[in-house]
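Lecture 7 notes: from sequence to structure.
We start with the chain below.
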Amino acid sequence: MAQPVSKISNQVDARNMARLAAVQALYQMEHSSSGVEIVVREFEEFRLGGELEGEAIREADGTHFQELVRGVVELQHKIDPLVNRLLSAGWTLKRLDATARAILRCSTYELIKRPDIPYRVVIDQYVDLASSFFDGDSDESGFINAVLDRAAAEVRGDETQSD
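Predicted structure tokens for the same chain:
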């Protein structure tokens, strides 16, 4: 029997809130030099049950949040070179805003490790997230969209070519 639409919608919302929290956690790790387990624990204890920069995240999927943050850290040695290769000439991850770096790392992780989530969903969700972080700045969102399109073509070539 199929799940009710409201339950599916709640699961999608919870996953999107986990993405938001994961981007924030990676940003925090970069600026505080805190380790992954400390930040994951802090988010679980204090932030996933409330608000983060005005965004309610109490419905975040804790499992997805943990997977994203730990997974990005674990695969960063693969993610960063891939993203650097996909950036326009003269650009590197280090040159980007820390939030953009976190968004690109999380989304690339999902493209690599979560083939059960359609690549278009991953791209759409992270472009929407970029728009919210950058106040609807279409340049920043468009930039992230372009990089993720290239990442999806490289990582999920079979899926992208079948569309």
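Points to note: The chain is about 75% helix and 0% strand. The longest strand covers residues 51-52.
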